[in-house]
Every structure is written in structure tokens, then in C-alpha cells.
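User: Hi! Is it possible to get a structure for several chains at once, not just one? Here's what I have:
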Amino acid sequence: MLKLPENFESYAEARKAGFLRMKDWKEKGGNVVGVFCTFVPEEILRAADAVAAPLCATSEEPIPAAETKLPRNLCPLIKASYGFALTDTCPYFYFSDLIVGETTCDGKRKTFELMNEIKETYVMQLPHSRSEAALESWKGEMIRLKEKLEDFYGIEISEERIKKEIRIRNRERKALLGFLELGKLNPAPVSGYELGTRLDGLGFNFNIEERCAVIEERTKEVYEDWKQNFEGKPSRRPRIIITGCPNSGVRDKIIKTVEELGADVVGFDCCNGTREKVELVDESMPVYDALAKKYLNINCSVMSPNDSRMRYIEEMLEEYQADGVIEIILQACHTYNIESHYVKETVTNQGKAYLMIETDYSQSDKGQIGTRLEAFLETIEK
Amino acid sequence: MDHPTETIYYVGIDIGSTASKTVILDETGTVDSFVLPTGWNGRETAQAIREKLEESGYARRMRCVATGYGRICVDYADKVVTEITCHGKGGWQLFGKNVTIIDVGGQDTKIIKVADGQVSDFLMNDKCAAGTGKFIEVMATRLGASLEDMYRLAEAGEPLAISAMCTVFAESEVISHISAGEKREDIAAGVIHSVANRVSNLASRFGISGDAALTGGLCASSYFMRILSEKLGRPVETHLFARYAGALGAALTARKLG
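Assistant: Yes, the chains can be modeled jointly so their relative placement is included. Here is the combined structure:
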């Protein structure tokens, strides 16, 4: 019999519903693995009949609880995620059988040690470069993850099954990319706010077929509306690409604000955008080689050097016909913060405007951020 | 006062965190300007400015652009524009060339690159009071000195190290200097140097293109100008009207509205 958290009765309705949904899923025999990062190969989790529950938190609420154990000067995403784990307020963490972490940034890497005291947290050792040796070691990590899951669930995972999951996930990547790349149309057919919110929402639907169907339908609907009503009528609103850290926790403060100020957010170079989706897993290669190759090529700033991100941004500027780039740095994210030097160079070399905003999940800098966004758009309008 | 009815006045109002600046232009040049303390209520300040504009007859036919932190408080403005764009336009008018404007204000510090009359890039230090006028204000209170006294004291002193990155902690550092019996002059010099250091680091990291020019409240202090120029290792210029750069930029924007 699965138990709900002690304070369950005091939770708000939406949170209660989330818990009950997860409880129901588990009672029907569903395996749940909690993950934080796109570097974790969902194909292998799915091959273990497990769904990947996204644990990246976007709320300010559990941060004070997290700060009883973690330093204040740490990334808000890490603090919020750990805070939810600590306070039993996230149904996905609470009902996860196992957490699979990865050694992306130092903040997460060390927090996983503390997290492991709450729930078993298995950590994949992600190399931070793209050398032959790194690829080999990352392939080993793919195999070790498979073995861990076999051991944990007492099952066997065949390569055939992984192959099947690779095909399914590739199809999903294409569907999501199709939606996100609607932003290439001019005028923008859909707000950046919607692109982001819809994608986030999908993460909590564990039926991948349904996920694809929902997003393909919306893509079609938006495209047809654009074709009928907006094609050939380019707008004068500045077109903006968002880059940097995951932005769901600051979407209202930055993305919504910049759109209200008269710009269109058309593209997302970030892990909750197109970054993980632009490269598919090669279906013709042996599975572990294919997975290792694909997942090592994700353009996260933990990779050093990370030139491929700069090339991708250059491509995006052109394909999305962008006027400017806003880079979002979550407080204390050193790798993105330092890499912003190259991003700025890349963007300004193309003659486009660049703005970097360092922020956290609080509302304390809402006013100042508004002013900066407004000024940024004024420099584009000229 | 008698004003020909056909004259249109272009009014720029810059409601800063500490002081509110107003500049009035006509078609040919600057007609008038004044400063009022912002106080605690931006709306009342905006109202007080309006009364002054009415008294002087400028309000009869005016186009008005508001800028600064309190820009939305100016409910009679025809347009609001951020202080960054306004400082850029005002700075271009005052200095007449490509400059990097360093605006040390009461609440934040802005570095604004101006090329061909437009803002090409900017950086805002807005997370922290260190390196702003507010820092000097807080420390002056602690030393029982007015702002003018601060600069006078500092000029006569040898700077003590004040290294805390945060105004609150730096205040503790100042208090420990006071209780250690250090000279007020030396502490004051330490405070000014600390602000100049922060501003100079910010500007250097961002990069300075063209000449460096200081606007905002601190440009009134020749001592601060000198120290900042030393830290930057390059001349820093200013203009008698530099305090009004934001308001001037707003007024110029108003003139463009027609």
C-alpha cells in the first residue's frame, strides 16, 4: 500500500491532484525514475518500463527549506528541487523509485550526495569534453545505467528494446522540434510564452504517444492559422532568441515581460528548448554508441570547450530571423555565466543585440529587469 | 509670464531614486532646467514638477517624455522611455561624439555605449548598492557628514581599505574603522575609493569604447572624477549639465514626437 506524505491534507488542490495521479500510476505498476537533466538517456529508462519524471523545480516556495542544508549562494533550480525533495511536496520526487542524476555542474553533483540521504540517487559520470576518451567513458556510463536499472528492478533490458525506444524518442524529438520551430515563421505565429509553457506541461504526461499527438495537433492548428491569416504580413515586433540556463522558473519575469513590451520570443537555445532535440539518436549505430554520441553532443555550458553552441546560435540567428538574443543566467551558474562572454561575442559579431540577465526565482528584481528589457528593446527599435 | 502661444515646449522629466531632474527645450535649444528631491512619493514629485511647469507657462503647450525609476508616476507624460536610452541621447548631445557614459546614480550604476547618437550596448549594476551614490550616502550618514563634507574630507585623507562587496557589510567595516579610532578623512577617502573601484571594474569588464564620460549625481564631485580617472587609467570627462543627461535625452525624445 502506497502512502501519501504526512501533510497531504494541508496541500493545495492542484498539488493533491498531482500526488493522487502519481499514486494511481504507481498502483497500476508503473515504474518512475526521477531525472533532472536532458543528459540522462530516457531511452534506457523507458526500456526498463520506467517513466522519466522531471524534477527540475521552478518555484521559489521550497527554497527557504533547502537553505537549511544548502548554501544561499547556489543556483535557484538546485535549491528549489532539493527543497521539494526535503519537504515531501513534489509528487514526482516523492513517488520516484530511484533518482538518476548526472555530473553536469558542481552544484548538482554535490547536492546529489545530500539527496541520496532522502532517496537513492544514482549518478551518471558525465565527461565535460567531447574527446574520443570522453565518448568511450560516456558509452560505459550508458551501459552502467542499464545494468543499474536491471539490478534495481530485477529485470533484463535487451538492446532490441532500447532500439525500439530510440525510435519512439526520435519521433518525439521531431514532434517537439516541429512545434518549437514554428518560431521560425514570420510573423511569429505563437508566443514564446506558449511555446515554453506547453512544452513544460507535456513533461508531466507520461504517455509518449499522447504527448506527440497533443503537440502535433497544436502545431498543425497554429500553422494553419498562420498560413490563412498571417503569412506574407511580417510584423515589426523585434524577434528575440532566449539562450542560457533553463528558464521555466523565470518565464513570467523575463519572457512574458519582454513579450508584453512588444517583442516576440521566437526561439529557445536552452535545455527546455531545442537544444536536446536538434540532434537525433543515430538509429543505424549500435545502441550504446549511438546514445553516447547523441547525449555527449548536447550543447550545455558544462562542456569545455563548447564551440558547437556558438555555431548553433549563429544558425538560429539566421533561421529565426532574430534581432536580438537575451541570455538568462540563473544565480551562481558559473559555466553559463562565464560562457556568456563567447555568446555575446557570437551574437554581436553577427550585428545582433545581446542582453544578459542574471537572476533567481525571487520577484525582488522584477522592476529592474523590466527596465533593462525595455531599454534593450529600445536599442533594437532604432 | 508671457509666452507666445505658438511656442511648443519639449519637457524631459527624469525621476531618479534620489533627485528628479527636469529639462525644458524649445525648437532651438534649452530654455530651462530644475532639480527637485524625489522624496518618498514619485507621484507627488511628478505633481510638484507639473505645478512648476504650469507656473512658468511651459505646460500650456508641451510635449512631455518621462524617464527614470519613477517614470510611470508621471501620468501626464506623452511617452515613457527608459533612462538608459535617455542617457544615451542626452550624452550624445552633451559630448557630441561616440562615448561610453558612466552614470553613477543614487540606486544603480549604468555603463552605456553611445555610437552615432544611439545606445549600442549597456550594462546595469542593479543587484547591489556598492558602487552607487547610495553607498556614499549610507557611509556619510554613518560618519555624520553631508555629501559635500564627504568629498571635502576624502580629499584630505589617505584611503583606508574598504573591501566588502556589500553595502551592509561595508558599513560594518566602516564602523570597525571608526571604533579603531581611524581618522574620518581616511575613512571618507576609503569610501570614495571603494565606489570608484567598483565602478571602474564594472566599466573595464564591459569595455570602454570612445571616450569615457561621467553623468549622474556624482559628476558634481571633481574629487570623484579624479579618482575614477586614475582607476580607469584614462581621462574621464563630464559636462556642467551632465546631471541632466537623462532629462535632456527625454526632452530630445519629446521634440522628436513633434
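The longest helix of chain B spans residues 184-206. The radius of gyration of chain B is 19 Å.

User: Great, thank you!
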